[in-house]
Write a structure and sequence with these properties.
five-stranded antiparallel sheet, alpha+beta, 364 residues, three-stranded antiparallel sheet
């Protein structure tokens, strides 16, 4: 793919959706496939010539719609490798660019290499020996919320630019609902018969119209590297420091986007005292000052983005998962973060949304 070429989310969800597995165990066949990547790739073969060290230590960390994440040890050093299909090389290239742009800050994993063959692609980084905020809990994150605000401000300051990718960011969101393109005509035909699917298309169109109205005459000014998915799993805790990982959905957009998404994904919207502490600490270090933008405006856009992605992803998960899967529960939990906020604007769709999501919230 030529440098600078833009690709839609739907392009790298094709095949990935229907082939996704929920198991975090590595089968013998999967391990053989992984070890073959290390043997055949010239960079990996040179850096890790003793393949037995990989064989003995490699473990699966996570699977998602884009790629699988593994960790392994070599000469007592920890590494993380993300492995996907060839088309995922574009995702890895974007994450590489993000990590390279902030490498001097020491606030994210160290990038080593990304490459692809005719069949697969990978991204190699350091493995951070630290606990995520998901492991430590929300209360720990709140107690140290100023550290997170400081890390985010440093990343934004270091990547300040006049370049803006908002339109690309919006288009990438809408690609999640390219069902026929992603699934193929036969699976899409079946999907159209699934309960709530047709009404969900009406809701997605309503969200699109609302976003278009809100963004049509609103210039963003300076931009920076925004993570856009700052959740507890992406925050790595060290003494007196918080690092941030998983920049594969990052874009160069107005920094307030990150603040708005964090408000919902870290449940700060429900805890105004901690939200104020977070914003005050952020503004104290960032080039972005409170009086120069409308925080509420970005939060109104953020919950629409979250809702659009939740509804779109719900039907993919419905096709490939059981209702007790971790990914399903994650969707339902994210819905609980924004449910109260969306009730007035999308009141005509709340019965459908509650039928899709609410029955599971009580189990969280």
């Amino acid at each position: 793919m030529e440098k600078g070429t833009k690709i839609k989310i739907s392009d790298y969800l094709v095949n990935r959706v229907m082939g996704k597995s929920q198991s975090l165990k590595i089968s013998l066949t999967e391990k053989k496939y992984l070890l073959n990547i290390f043997i055949e790739d010239s960079y990996l073969n040179k850096k890790f010539p003793e393949i037995n060290q990989i064989d003995q230590s490699i473990k699966l960390i996570d699977r998602n719609l884009y790629y699988d994440i593994y960790k392994f040890y070599y000469d007592k050093l920890g590494y993380a490798i993300k492995v996907g299909e060839k088309v995922d090389s574009f995702v890895f290239e974007r994450e590489k660019n993000a990590l390279e742009s902030i490498k001097d800050l020491n606030l994210s994993p160290i990038f080593f290499n990304t490459a692809h063959s005719d069949n697969d692609a990978y991204l190699l980084t350091s493995f951070e020996h630290s606990q995520s905020s998901k492991e430590l809990g929300l209360s720990y994150t709140y107690e140290n919320i100023e550290l997170l605000a400081s890390s985010l401000a440093k990343i934004h300051n270091a990547t300040k630019t006049e370049e803006n990718e908002r339109e690309y960011f919006i288009d990438s969101l809408y690609s999640f609902s390219s069902y026929e393109e992603i699934l193929g005509s036969e699976a899409y035909k079946e999907l159209k018969e699934v309960k709530n699917f047709q009404e969900s298309l009406d809701l997605l169109n309503a969200i699109k119209k609302a976003i278009a109205i809100q963004t049509s005459n609103h210039a963003e000014g300076y931009s920076c590297l925004c993570h856009t998915d700052l959740n507890l799993s992406c925050i790595l805790n060290r003494p007196e420091e918080m690092k941030i990982c998983n920049f594969f959905e990052s874009f160069k957009i107005h920094p307030a986007w990150d603040l708005a998404f964090a408000s919902y994904k870290l449940e700060l919207d429900s805890h105004p005292i901690y939200e104020k502490r977070f914003l005050d600490a952020y503004h104290a270090e960032s080039f972005l000052k409170e009086e120069t933008y409308n925080y509420v405006y970005y939060k109104q856009l953020a919950y629409k983005f979250i809702l659009y992605k939740l509804v779109s992803t719900y039907f993919f998960e419905l096709l490939m998962s059981d209702s007790d899967s971790t990914d399903f529960l994650s969707l339902f939990k994210n819905y609980s973060y924004i449910r109260e906020t969306i009730q007035d604007e999308f009141s005509e769709h709340m019965d459908m949304l509650d039928e899709m999501f609410v029955p599971y919230i009580k189990n969280l």
